[in-house]
Amino acid sequence: FAPNLKIIKMSGIRTFTMLKPDAVEKGHVGAILEQIASAGFRIVAMKLTQMTQTDAETFYAVHKERPFFGELVEYMTRGPIVAAILEKENAVEDFRTLIGATNPEDAAEGTIRKLYAASIGENAVHGSDSDENAQIEGAFHFAGREMF
Ligand code: UDP
Question: CATH code at 127?
């Protein structure tokens, strides 16, 4: 029995997101979820959760040598996040378009980061950058039985 097999086979139509602590603190969860749903994404899994220091260090391990790593871990652990798996054709790319550039100053008008992000660090939302990472990140936060 391998519940995650389903995800591997469906690669290409799922992505993983987090509404980060700043978005939750500012009360933007409802508006952001509305924008995500209006763009055609279906929620496959979702929860309010808080990352531990080890969680954040593991999730962002690829950035561990970067100068912003310490601040990133502190930010991502300071309060609850909304973690979700989303489904749509071309999910990873379309979701990256919907959220906009990492730095809100560079993000296109109307994107989630343009609307809700304060800075390149506190940028409101995460979106996986590949099908492989979408699968890894979704499995990091959700058990197979939490995916619908
Ligand atoms: N980040 C930061 N400073 C930077 C670049 C990134 O604090 O100069 C943070 C920011 O929260 C970003 C996360 O680290 O979302 C991951 O960075 P990445 O380059 O993977 O950007 P993303 O894929 O989230 O757009």
Answer: 3.30.70.141
**Complex ipTM:** 0.98
Which bin fits 56, alpha (ψ -120 to 50), beta or left (φ > 0)?
alpha
Q: Write out residues with Cβ below 6 Å of ligand 1.
A: 68, 72, 102, 120-121, 123, 126, 129
User: What total of structural domains would you count in the chain?
Assistant: 1
Q: What confidence tens digit (pLDDT) does each residue in 59-94 have?
A: 999 999 999 999 999 999 999 999 999 999 999 999
**How many angstroms from the chain centroid is the CA of residue 17?**
2
- The alpha-carbon radius of gyration of the chain (Å, integer) is 14
**pTM value?**
0.93
Picking from 136, 140, 143, 146, the residue whose alpha carbon sits closest to that of residue 14 is: 136
Residues of the domain holding 99: 5-146
113 carries a ligand binding annotation: yes
Number of neighbours of residue 68 by Cβ within 10 angstroms: 12
